[in-house]
Amino acid sequence: TAASLLLIIAFPIPPINLREELEPGKSSCASRRHCHKSSSSYHKPPSPYLLSVLRDYEQRHKRCEPLTKSFNRSFFQVSSHQPSHVDDDDCSYVVFTRPTNGLGNRMLSMSSAFLYALLTNRVLLVDFGPDMTHLFSEPVPNSTWLFPEDSRFGNRIYGSKVDDFGSLMKNNNNNHTAVLANNSSSFLHVNLGYGYDDYDKLFYSNEVQDGLQKVSWLILKSDQYFVPYLFLMSGFRAKLDRMFPDKETVFHHLGRYLFTPSDQAWGLIARFYDAYLANADERIGLQIRVLDTKASPTALVLKQVLRCAQKEAQILPPLATKQNETATKKLASKKTSYNKAVLVASLSSEFYVELKDMFWKRASASTGSDGEVAVGFHQASHEEVQRSNDGSHNMMAWVDIYLLSLCDVLVTSGWSTFGYVAQGLGGLRPWILQIPDTKYGGGETLWGNACRRAVSMEPCFHFPPSYDGNKVGVRVDGEEGGGSPSVVHCEDVGGGLKLV
Ligand code: GDP
Question: Per the annotation, which location comes first and is thus the protein's main one (predicted)?
Fold first, then answer.
């Protein structure tokens, strides 16, 4: 329509590279669903092998998508417990289901499920429930990844008789592979979420993976970014190394492939970006996630944010003090030389209000001769409390995440999956802020600093199974001789794992 064409012209962001590579000549912002910023910070294209894996995936997805002949055959065969064995031509699935937790957690575990689907020749379907259906465009053009809403389908995969992987493992502790072969003609629930137990964790064993190949329907519940652990599994490693010669780009590529804003989300993103961010010389994203407002009072967090942004990351100018006021007055008579637009993403509006006032009422103490740095603060929404089962709330979250990903520099909050998604989509290594917590001494931080630069743009897997009797931390990638490790502990979560 004319209206959408106008929006495209008004939002001159270059197209996503992956879609362009998959369908040459098709993207170039021909439609909004294909327009992504080609990040100012990261330009490395996907490997040819990843592209060929994605092309194969798209063909498989089209052949097996919901309500095709192959889908119906597979689904109803399993529903009626007819014995079946999975041929190469048959469709097998991983259904990402009824997510709990916030959008960041959900997007990270969906991308992990997608990578698992690529590795095991499955098709990824999603059963979002009503609070997420309107956020994204379909990743595979002219196809759907939505599990049918019709209760005939839902009733079967969530039925009380459906097996649970962890329980199967527990009840058949000695023969994991055989029990999976016996249960190949059923739906199997797999729990890889926070709080999973040792039997659920057997999912990460190579031997069990061999058995799971025969199970055509896996119903996955997870809120974790479990990708780093797939790199520790010898059965997958060779293919992963070919797909991702640069390990730091896994979520960057997969996330940008899977998550394109819907037209509704795109409108909100584009209007905000054009009005407040587009014309700045530099865009800074500040993502402030306070989990416990009592233990982390606003004034303390604000102090920490400033210490990080002004002193350690040096992305915001210091403010004038009494001593350098005269020099600043002289500067103030000159024209502003440089414009910084700061996007504040937070559930609360307090940080935005305080920062805006602070940088407006006091001059910045730039010492150069070029005049003052102008710093403008902007906030797209302040939802006050997390309501992750609410569709319009999730839309605001998605808009904030996407806007953060369009920034040139990011400060994110430690432990926050919301920030991980933004940094990954944007291809940015953020400054990770440690939110001060009075329970642990307030101003004290893990690193002595208020923030620390991330070693890679990859998200952190918060709760991995322990690896090889705690070998983790020395060299977690299992490459015993030489070479640099590709999986390390996260900066913000000691027991977590991330790719570098
Ligand atoms: P995490 O809890 O920080 O790991 O991130 P999640 O995304 O999993 O869950 C937090 C949820 O709280 C988000 O999905 C949003 O619903 C809400 N939320 C937290 N911070 C913000 C923010 O800066 N902006 C918006 N719009 N929502 C937020």
Answer: Golgi
H/E/C letters for each residue in 79-93? HCCCCCCCCCCCCCE
Q: Is residue 241 domain-shared with residue 284, that is, in the same domain?
A: no
CATH code, 366:
3.40.50.11350
User: Over its length of 500 residues, how does the chain's per-residue pLDDT go in tens digits?
Assistant: 334 433 333 333 433 456 667 776 554 343 343 444 444 445 578 999 999 999 999 999 999 999 999 999 999 888 776 655 555 568 999 999 977 899 999 999 999 999 999 999 999 999 998 889 899 999 999 999 999 998 889 888 988 778 899 999 888 877 888 888 877 768 999 999 988 998 999 999 888 999 999 899 999 999 999 999 999 898 999 999 999 999 999 999 999 999 999 999 999 999 999 999 999 999 999 999 999 999 999 999 999 999 999 999 999 999 987 666 655 565 555 666 789 999 999 999 999 999 999 999 988 876 555 667 899 999 999 988 898 888 899 999 999 999 999 999 999 999 999 999 999 999 999 999 999 888 876 666 666 789 999 999 999 999 998 754 343 333 444 444 445 679 998 999 988 999 99
Exposure string for 360-397, b = 16+ CB within 10 A, e = fewer = eeebbbbeeeebbbbbbbbbbbbbeebebeeeebbbbb
Whole-prediction pTM: 0.90
Indicate if 13 and 138 belong to the same structural domain: no
Inter-residue contact 136 to 113 (CB < 8 Å): no
State whether the beta carbon of 289 lies less than 6 angstroms from ligand 1.
yes
Cβ of 390 closer than 6 Å to ligand 1, yes or no, is no
Range of the domain at 7: 1-35
- Are residues 285 and 229 part of one domain? no
Q: Which ligand 1 atom minimizes the distance to the CA of 413?
A: 3
Ligand 1: centre distance to CA 412 (Å): 12
Q: Among residues 123, 127, 73, which one has the least CA distance to residue 94?
A: 123
Of 409, 376, 383, nearest to 397 (Cα)?
Answer: 383
